[in-house]
Specification:
Elements: H1 10-26, H2 44-73, E1 106-107, E2 125-128, E3 131-133, E4 140-143, E5 163-167, E6 170-174, E7 178-179, E8 191-199, E9 201-211, E10 221-229, E11 234-240, E12 264-272, E13 275-285, E14 294-302, H3 304-308, E15 314-324, E16 337-339, H4 340-346, H5 354-365, E17 378-379, E18 384-388, E19 401-407, E20 410-415, E21 419-420, E22 430-432, E23 447-449, E24 459-461, H6 470-475, E25 482-485, E26 493-495, E27 500-507, E28 511-515, E29 518-523, E30 532-538, E31 543-547, E32 554-558, H7 562-566
Parallel strand pairs: 2-8, 16-22
Antiparallel strand pairs: 1-11, 3-4, 4-15, 5-6, 7-15, 8-14, 9-13, 9-15, 10-11, 10-14, 12-13, 17-21, 18-20, 19-20, 23-24, 24-30, 25-32, 26-31, 27-30, 27-32, 28-29, 28-31
């Protein structure tokens, strides 16, 4: 286990929270000046009685206000001061996830799980979370709980300090935790959904406990974990008190302290002000037909109200880690996403200066976590990464990548297909491909014309006066086009970044157009203010070339928003 960090000082944490409450209260508008009240004269004896009553009421009020104020400020344990029921909340234990048939827990593409409603005024927790690279410990990826945590600061639990903690050989990001609602905390959430998108998972590990897990709730289904896969399959794991989840307390005789499942084990034991307790680790193996899929989300729902008739017991989840097949990169195809639109805006065609590349890389990584990938590790299609191919004596042109910005073979690239990384480096970021619209119908009247051979024999042109300006196109996300010009590609070739149903071209001379080295037609020069459009399917990653390249220049445009740009080209002032 890594060196434990210094335990959090709970009094210091409480002071921070109380300071926060005071600062918030000071933001309110000042009260209006109080008006003086005329109090009628009363007798001395009456005044004495009222004074005594006031002191007593004030003392009770201060006790209640102090209790509620501190309680609201933090998860303070009051059990040692009160003789009411003992608190039993920390983590929840999980279930036996291997059914006799995998199909028992696989739902169809439409989820069938019925989640308990979230309490009024509480927003369901459904967020994307950055994965945590645990590759130094093996084939592991941690999932941060910060975004769904019901505590404001990382804190110790049963003496286990906030840090990367290795428990039973499994690394966890420890310190945040999620606590579901209970009778004592009715305002707490009943569910969460974490988008993960982890490739080829083999096991999912949870640090878990139950709170208020009394023996009269034994054998009740108090929660459910659902593992959702990208193809629609869902693995439902019920949490049964006494089977695969138990109360956190070791000493409370009223609590359920035993388990029957072999898939849960004690991972940590320690002391608290309420007595000795433990944290269990639940293992959910990915079995049968679920192997080899992509884990798209981890979901949890508290079912105590439905099956136990009470908001008790509740569940605490303190850590989640996913184990994967060997060789799977320590990132997901959807986590830490960078929109395709941003990639397109960053793209600087041709060779750039080092300062331009640094700016490009910094902009792409702003607010996102970079992930190291070692040499010889697989890189999936769609990855955005920064590296230097020359570090392995290779050139970027040897790999199925698109250069977003580069200086030589160093820069920011997008993988068009999966490949093996030749060199270690700051591989990072996953792109989420925008779902492309079909190429829209023309926005202006089109005139048919033949401009050459092959598909160029059936081309069209317009007046280019569709009333769309540059700002409108950008603000409404109609800027998904790729320009291939002599200024940036003096060799006449470039790799397609989009699927495109049509090609827009404008040449100053007769030339031949090639796709992936094969001629698709010859262009016969014809004068026109902004070129012509013809149908030809281009796939992302195809290489488009013009031959020959002459000083008069050439202009090729592809992309799903081609007509928005073509039919407004003259309106935007680009025609003679």
């Amino acid at each position: 286990m890594p060196d434990a960090k210094k335990p959090v000082d709970r009094m210091e944490l409480l002071e921070d929270k109380l300071r926060y409450v005071r600062e918030k209260s000071e933001e309110k508008l000042p009260p209006e000046p109080r008006k003086r009240l005329q109090i009628p004269e009363i007798s001395v004896s009456t005044r004495t009685i009222l004074k005594a009553f006031g002191i007593g009421a004030g003392a009770i009020g201060l006790f209640i206000a102090g209790y509620l104020g501190i309680k609201a400020a933090g998860n303070v344990d009051f059990s040692k001061y009160m003789n009411t029921r003992q608190p039993t909340s920390s983590l929840v234990e999980i279930i036996d996830p291997t059914p006799t048939k995998v199909s028992d827990y696989i739902a169809p593409a439409t989820p069938t799980a019925v989640f308990s409603p979230v309490p009024s005024g509480i927003t369901p927790m459904t967020l994307d979370f950055p994965l945590i690279d645990f590759s130094q410990y093996g084939n592991y990826q941690g999932i941060s709980l910060e975004g769904i945590s019901t505590i404001r600061f990382k804190e110790s639990n049963l003496g286990l300090t906030p840090a990367t903690q290795v428990l039973e050989g499994i690394p966890f990001d420890f310190g945040w935790h999620f606590e579901s609602q209970s009778e004592a905390k009715k305002q707490y959430p009943t569910s969460f959904s974490i988008k993960t998108h982890v490739q080829n998972p083999t096991n999912v590990y949870f640090l878990i406990q139950a709170g208020w897990g009394y023996d009269f709730y034994k054998d009740k289904k108090i929660g459910e974990i659902s593992l959702q896969f990208s193809d629609g399959a869902i693995y439902h794991i019920p949490l049964i008190l006494g089977e695969n989840v138990r109360d956190w307390s070791v000493t409370n005789e009223r609590a359920v302290r035993s388990l029957t499942s072999t898939f849960i084990e004690e991972a940590w034991a320690g002391d608290s002000t309420a007595g000795k307790g433990r944290i269990d680790m639940l293992t959910i193996p990915i079995v049968g037909d679920l192997r080899g899929r992509e884990l798209a989300a981890v979901e949890f729902v508290d079912t105590s109200v439905e099956y136990a008739g009470s908001k008790d017991p509740n569940i605490h989840i303190l850590g989640i880690t996913v184990e994967t097949e060997p060789g799977v990169p320590a990132f997901s195809s959807a986590y830490n996403t960078i929109p395709q639109e941003l990639v397109d805006r960053l793209a600087i065609i041709g060779t750039n200066t080092e300062s331009e590349v640094h700016k490009c890389v910094d902009t792409s990584s702003e607010g996102r976590t970079q992930v190291e990938i070692t040499a010889n590790q697989p890189v999936p299609a769609g990855t955005i990464f920064a590296t230097d191919f020359s570090g392995a004596g290779r050139s970027w042109t040897e790999f199925p990548v698109f250069p977003i910005c580069r200086s030589g073979s160093w820069g920011l690239f997008q993988s068009m297909e999966a490949f093996t990384a030749p060199y270690k480096g700051a591989y990072m970021l996953i792109t989420s491909y925008t779902t492309q619209q079909s190429t829209p119908e023309p926005l202006r009247t089109q005139t048919s014309v033949s401009i050459g051979t092959g598909p160029l024999a059936d081309a069209t042109f317009s007046d280019g006066m569709a009333p769309y300006g540059e700002d409108w196109l950008f603000n409404n996300n109609f800027h998904r086009i790729q320009r291939i010009r002599m200024e940036e590609q003096p060799d006449g070739c470039d790799m397609a970044r989009y699927d495109s149903e049509k090609i827009w071209l404008s040449f100053g001379y007769p030339a031949e157009l090639l796709v992936n080295g094969e001629s698709i037609g010859k262009y016969t020069y014809q004068p026109n203010s902004h070129g012509f459009v013809f149908a030809y399917p281009v796939k992302k990653g195809d290489t488009l070339c013009v031959s020959p390249v002459k000083p008069m220049g050439y202009h090729i445009v592809i992309g799903p928003d081609l007509y928005y740009s073509y039919d407004s080209y003259c309106y935007r002032g680009h025609c003679d």
